[in-house]
Design a protein that fits this description.
mainly alpha; elongated; 173 residues; 47% helix; 0% strand
């Protein structure tokens, strides 16, 4: 037994009998602009998860974003460079003192496959650098904190120090 071909229906046939009973209200464009708040106020929501107060974290971020090193940012905020590095990591910055191979070594140490001394030697870092690498591997950046500092840590194309070193797509032709 063969199925009969379906009748061709036009859109008007499908919409027949439908009617609009309510009107849609124009609510405008939704915005969530927090730029009127200071950086320390925006960090206030995650202050308890940071290794320093929100005001101190804001100083670290501002100094770091202006081109200062992690150590200089920490000194400007009155905290140890390690605290500044941990803060920046939680805010989404890449501060790990080890590369991909070093991260694998740290993961092996954390899994109990290597003793600390051997892992530190294999990673070719100092004790404090190894401690920071362990912190980075065991603490995820805070998404809400990343949102709070996104504008401050964004690299402006005109201010990008490596802009001249990058090729344009037209350079390849």
């Amino acid at each position: 037994m063969e199925a009969e071909p379906a009748e061709d229906m036009a859109l008007s046939d499908i919409a027949e009998g439908l009617e609009v009973t309510t009107e849609q209200r124009d609510r405008g464009v939704a915005t969530a602009d927090r730029t009127e708040q200071s950086l320390s106020q925006r960090l206030g929501d995650v202050a308890e998860e940071l290794p320093c107060p929100a005001e101190t974290a804001a100083t670290v971020v501002e100094r770091y974003a202006s081109g200062g090193s992690v150590g200089a940012a920490g000194r400007a905020a009155g905290v140890a460079p390690m605290t500044a590095a941990k803060t920046l990591h939680l805010l989404g910055e890449s501060v790990s003192p080890v590369g991909p191979t070093g991260r694998e070594v740290v993961r092996d140490f954390l899994a109990g496959e290597l003793p600390r001394t051997e892992a530190r030697q294999l990673a070719r870092v100092s004790d404090s650098e190894f401690a920071l690498a362990v912190y980075v591997e065991t603490h995820e950046p805070l998404a809400e904190a990343q949102d709070a500092v996104a504008d401050t840590l964004a690299v402006d194309g005109d201010a990008d120090p490596l802009a001249d070193a990058r090729s344009e797509t037209t350079d390849l032709l």
